[in-house]
Design brief:
Elements lengths: L1 E4 L7 E8 L7 H17 L4 E3 L17 H17 L6 E10 L2 E10 L2 E7 L29 E6 L14 E5 L8 H16 L2 E5 L16 E5 L2 E5 L7 E8 L22 H26 L3 E5 L4 H17 L6 E5 L7 H13 L3 E4 L3 H11 L8 H22 L1 E5 L3 H6 L12 E2 L6 H11 L5 H11 L19 H5 L2 H12 L5
Parallel strand pairs: 2-3, 3-4, 7-8, 8-9, 13-14, 13-16, 14-15, 16-17
Antiparallel strand pairs: 1-7, 2-12, 4-5, 5-6, 9-10, 10-11
Length: 514
């Protein structure tokens, strides 16, 4: 954290703004242009202070490439261009970039005004830093000189809103952040920012990364907000492409107090039905946004999905439909492929076809039985031996089909595997563990069930009815022959209850043990 002071009348309102324009990952020049556009927008709105997200000039998800000398130089040049754009303005601008400090690359915030770079401030020890940077310098190591007494300005990183006992260090706080979005994060970030403004007695403007960031490991929703005296004064809609919000704050009316905050609920989603419904729908929206980002980045014409009649592929298909709707490409550019094998039942096969058609997608059916039998003959495997060769050959043949269709038609192969399967290793190496983008990779099986139930009705009565039957179908890979037309291979009879697995997984991921 660092601070400076500006001259103004204490009883005159000041206008704070937060912006999160869409970026081009790894293109500081383009991102500088986006920052300058936000500055011009702020000028028209007569803003006094503007904050942009952490690592905005290169993108928060660039990884180790942001440490390359070429990228660091490009970011410095871009910073100079943004600073020059403030030459004839009155507003302060806070913007994030990687910067070399004491021989190490750090996530930093630059503070600009009047064509000058006032300071480049490294992340504090308390800042959220998921990007593998060198350990941060102690807080306050890069202080700005005091100019005038009121109002005092501080800049920092958005992870500070979660810290308790944060001292008041000014009147205005500009928070650049890189907090990734989750099902529960919107409420947590919103309430934490409001509580932070109450605890510190400061007006806070916060900007988080938006569209254009990679969705390989995280999804960012571009949330921007202004808070003072424990209240959110202005905020953007999550997942906005070009968020920009502002609000007026009277410095002499700021006060510090200890706000009431609800304890964080345990579990993937809230126990409150209404909150849970909102969180499940948000999770679905994040899946959609992630898939849209990846598809747009590689210029995919549409999507191909292996549909099994099970929960995972049903949710992946719904996400693809929502993504296609947002992209405006039409659901006819989604191909749902049913690939019946030795254990496929009529129930799952029929549900696969019915769901694809009810959603207005293209349906294809390609049996893997003949190809697998030829494979067995080639390697000398007895088809009567239902070992791992028998099971995995089917999964690998399905993956080969999907990837080939994706290549042939310029589609993106959407993976269906979920977090529970990944944690258990319940997947075929070289088979269903492979896809071009897995929309369920961070979603546990029990939550997939709840998301499908939460959003199913959005896709029409016919699709919802089919989804209800899929929800009632036992979880199974259907790789072993059916028993009298019924599923013989039930996953939870083999690996145990997903309710228990997901419970243990939740606490394990939070760093807790037995």
């Amino acid at each position: 954290m660092s601070e400076c002071m500006l001259a103004t009348q204490s009883d005159a309102p000041v206008r704070l703004a937060a912006a999160s324009p869409e970026i081009v990952l790894g293109d500081p020049k383009a991102n500088a242009a986006a920052a300058i556009s936000a500055i011009r927008r702020a000028e028209k709105a007569e803003v006094d202070y503007l904050v942009l997200p952490e690592l905005f000039l290169c993108g928060a998800t660039l990884g180790s490439l942001m440490e390359h000398p070429l990228m660091l130089n490009a970011c410095r040049e871009a910073l100079g261009a943004v600073a020059e754009a403030t030459k004839h303005t009155w507003l302060f601008v806070s913007i994030g970039l990687p910067y070399m400090v004491d021989g190490r690359v750090r996530s930093c915030i630059a503070l600009l005004r009047g064509g000058r770079i006032y300071a480049v401030i490294p992340a504090s020890r308390g800042a959220v830093n998921p990007f593998g940077f060198a350990p941060a310098v102690p807080r306050g190591a890069a202080s700005l000189s005091t100019l005038t007494p009121i109002p005092r300005l501080s800049v920092g990183f958005a992870g500070q809103i979660f810290a308790k006992g944060e001292p008041r260090e000014g009147h205005i706080m500009l928070l650049s952040g890189a907090i990734n979005a989750t099902a529960k994060s919107y409420g947590a970030v919103r309430s934490s920012l409001a509580a932070y403004s109450a605890r510190t007695g400061m007006a806070a403007a916060m900007a988080l990364p938006s569209r254009g960031e990679s969705t390989t490991a995280f999804v960012f929703d571009g949330y921007c907000a202004i808070a003072a005296n424990g209240e959110i004064l202005a905020e953007s809609e999550p997942l906005s492409r070009d968020a920009f919000v502002y609000a007026d704050v009277c410095i002499d009316k700021l006060s510090a107090f200890e706000p009431f905050t609800e304890a964080e609920e345990e579990g993937y989603v809230s126990n409150d039905p209404d909150k849970a419904q909102a969180q499940l729908r948000r999770l679905f929206a994040l899946q959609r946004a992630a898939l849209v980002r990846r598809a747009e980045h590689i210029h995919a014409k549409g999507f191909v999905i292996g549909v099994s009649g099970g929960l995972d592929s049903a949710l992946a298909l719904l996400v693809a439909c929502a993504a296609a709707d947002e992209m405006g490409i039409g659901r006819g550019m989604i191909t749902g492929v049913s690939m019946p094998g030795f254990g496929t039942t009529s129930r799952t096969k029929n549900n696969s076809r019915a769901l694809v058609e009810a959603l207005g997608c293209k349906y294809r059916e390609i049996s893997v039985a003949a190809a697998c039998r030829e494979h067995f003959a080639n390697i000398g495997h007895d088809e009567a031996n239902h070992n791992s060769v028998y099971e995995n050959a089917q999964a690998r043949e399905r993956t080969k089909i999907l990837l080939s269709i994706a290549n042939e038609e310029g589609l993106l192969d959407v993976g269906t595997g979920d977090l529970s399967e990944a944690a258990l290793g319940w997947t075929t190496f070289g088979g269903d563990h492979l896809a071009q983008y897995g929309v369920n990779a961070s979603v546990p099986k029990t939550i997939i069930r709840r998301v499908v139930a939460a959003v199913g009705a959005d896709f029409g009565a016919d699709a919802d009815a089919i989804l209800r039957d899929i929800l009632a179908t036992p979880v199974s890979p259907e790789l072993l022959p059916a028993n009298g037309g019924e599923i013989s291979q039930k996953t939870e009879e083999l690996v145990g209850s997903y309710e228990l697995h997901d419970l243990f997984l939740y606490y394990f991921l939070k760093g807790k043990g037995p």
